[in-house]
Amino acid sequence: MPGLNITRAEAQERAQHLKIDHYDISLDVTTGDELFRAKTVVKFSATPGYDTFIDAVGKKVITATLMAHRLMFLTTTANQSS
User: Fold this and answer.
1) 3 pLDDT band (50/70/90 cuts)?
2) How many domains, in total, are found in the chain?
């Protein structure tokens, strides 16, 4: 489940369905003392019909796209202090 650690068995099962080809991560640390912008591109393939997720842990997700289609995403404040 996104936002929680998965079990070893879940990770092994997930690994059977996903092939990660490449991660490209860009950071802009010039935006302030506490916040920065990050852009992550993950190139992967998956077994057709297999549901998966990517966790994005940070203050805010600005956009998420998959194959040039903008995605809706879930947000949680469970780990944020008031």
Assistant:
1) low
2) 1
